[in-house]
Amino acid sequence: MKVDVVQKVLKANDDIAKLVRARFDEYGISCINMISAPGSGKTTLIETALKQGLSGVRIGVIEGDPETTRDAERIAKYDVPVVQINTAGGCHLESQLVLQALDKLPLDAIDLLIIENVGNLVCPVGFDLGEKSRVAVVSVTEGQDKPFKYPRLFQTANIVILNKVDLLPYVPFDVEEFKQGVHGIQPDVPILHVSCTQGDGVEQWVNWLKGQADKQTNE
Amino acid sequence: MKVDVVQKVLKANDDIAKLVRARFDEYGISCINMISAPGSGKTTLIETALKQGLSGVRIGVIEGDPETTRDAERIAKYDVPVVQINTAGGCHLESQLVLQALDKLPLDAIDLLIIENVGNLVCPVGFDLGEKSRVAVVSVTEGQDKPFKYPRLFQTANIVILNKVDLLPYVPFDVEEFKQGVHGIQPDVPILHVSCTQGDGVEQWVNWLKGQADKQTNE
């Protein structure tokens, strides 16, 4: 009975995700869905890319949080279109919320739409938002056991960001075990080491983002 | 329709939580429920208390994770009874799972049962596990915005641990804003600053735990 309810919710989500994806195709938009625990640095990763600039790739952002417009306000400073979704305590974004948010964005002026999901390593994973790619973010302060304990995100990620690597000298984090955990789940997924404060990996992160937009444009 | 389903699940959970609480009363067990984002340091907080010793308070532990027995193995080294609950991808513990776990614990040899919930700032909050007290843990690397963006946990916490304060020199974390956020939601909740690696606040944490067991004994 319980499983049946979950399946119905997921099916409804997948049906609406198809509509979202059709809108993206219509406007030539590439979409990425960023998933991590709360406080892993998703917003700062977006801010850092916007600071660097993306060589003509026009960015739009959807921010998901249980409450507040704090993250959208941070992004708005970079003068890009941004919509905040508040889930009123909800633990993940669903495609219906994204579809509503699209009405508030200038879709013909966006090449790459970045969705920052609610901070949660579990619930967002099952919900397709119409994205082309998924970004999994783990900060080194969270411990190298995360891919083992929370494997499902790492099954569906197109790239894994190991974030806040500037803190490695101060925390007990085994990089090799983390890599083994991720590649045990998905052998070929790239793992980028990034520090937005020190600059490590920022160029690769920006290039990956630009590549996402280019891919869409070339299809 | 969706809300109705959620209410039914929550009501079933609350009914079973009453049975769990009755078992705790029968055995004179005090129970605490630890909730945080993944990687905030819940397991290390438990390990640190076990290392210090709790002056005759007999501890039992239930570990909740989507997958693996890693956390239970860490706790078992301290020679205390421990049960691992794997939720098979599920995002929170429910009282039914705790009730099942109780059958695997020597209840007459436990004064204080510590439940470490699945790492998630959202979903565990709505599910009563029969606990006497809730511990909310936030590490300084997660940012001071967490009480604002994820307020519901802080409404129901009996104590808030600001963890990993040894990392404060290396991260942009505004302690005052964090405190304002927590106390704006619940003015009198204590906030403990803890570093398990440096020892800050460990004595207060251990004393708080002992106080939880004493309270139960004196009732």
What is the domain total for the residues of chain A? 1
The chain-level structural class of chain A is alpha/beta
Biggest sheet character of chain A: 7 strands, parallel
Q: Let me know the number of strands of chain A.
A: 7
SSE succession of chain A: HEHEHEHEEHHEHEH
Descriptive account of the structure:
- 2 copies of one chain form a homodimer.
- Chain A is built from 8 helices and 7 strands, in the order αβαβαβαββααβαβα.
- The model of chain A has no long low-confidence stretch (mean pLDDT 94).
- Chain A has a single domain, classed as Rossmann fold (3-Layer(aba) Sandwich), CATH 3.40.50.
- The first copy, chain A, starts with a helix and ends with a helix.
- Chain A has 219 residues and is α/β, with parallel strands linked by helices.
- A 7-stranded parallel β-sheet of chain A has the order 3-2-4-1-5-6-7, with helices on both faces.
- In chain A, 41% of the residues lie in helices and 18% in strands.
Sum this structure up briefly.
The structure is a homodimer of 219-residue chains. Chain A is an alpha/beta fold.
